[in-house]
Amino acid sequence: MVLSSAPSGQAELVMDGQHLRRVIYDGLLSAKVSVDIATADLKAVLVPDRGKTASRQNPPSIIEHLCRMAQRGVEVRVLHAGVPSSPALQELKRLTRKHKGLPDNLIFRRCPRVHTKAVIIDADRMYLGSANLTGAGLGAKADHNRNHEIGIWTTTPDLIDAVSHYFNHLWEAGACEGCGRKDVCPVPLEEPKL
User: In whole angstroms, what separates CA 61 from the centre of its chain?
Assistant: First the structure.
């Protein structure tokens, strides 16, 4: 469902299982230059091939896709709140061993106050909504197991610029000075220990 259309951009409503197609297949995996991801929860979402069911044996995880994108030259930045899930950390460790380190342009940072959910692709299209980077959030699970999620997919430059500015402010530790949560974040914008 298209919410608005104007010469300056477009916004489309994305609900429930539509997230996998729109945010992952049409969005994230199509990136050519950059991807900025803000998510409260980071898991090793299994991403079945387009058109396949989620039950396919051993589909690659989103972590592997992000690594492949970075190897192609896409700058990937992931800002998340919690400790990544055990499978996500195991996948990061496996890829680190396999490639003798993660690509320099694949960077994970953690801030416990991040509750924002946004995916900005090539600075010209964006998802903004309720879904975390999890299988239940992005619709990679069966209908009866996924979360009820809603968001917008947009190509509206002013909206993308505003969210990008906010993301960069958080990424560059702009909110760290004076933060009242330093008791749970002694190292500003810590990266996962692999």
Answer: 12
Single out the residue of 39, 98, 97, 105 nearest to residue 66, CA to CA: 105
**65-99 tens-digit pLDDT:** 999 999 999 999 999 887 778 888 888 888 888 87
Helix (H) / strand (E) element for 37: namely strand 34-39
Q: Rounded to the nearest 10 degrees, what angle do helices 62-71 and 86-99 cross at? A: 30
Out of 3.20.20.70, 3.60.15.10, 3.30.870.10, 3.40.50.1260, select the CATH number for domain 2-50+57-171: 3.30.870.10
- The domains of the chain are located at 2-50+57-171
Whether residue 161 is predicted with pLDDT greater than 80 in this model: the reply is yes
- pTM of the complete model: 0.86
**How many other CB atoms are found less than 10 A from the CB of residue 154?**
22
Asked whether the beta carbons of 11 and 3 are under 8 A apart, the reply is yes
For residues 192 and 194, give the distance between their C-alpha atoms in angstroms, rounded to a whole number: 6
* Per-residue burial over 167-178, b = 16 or more CB atoms within 10 Å of its CB, e = otherwise: beebbeeebeee
Residues 6 or more apart in contact with residue 171 via CB below 8 angstroms: 36, 77, 79, 109, 189
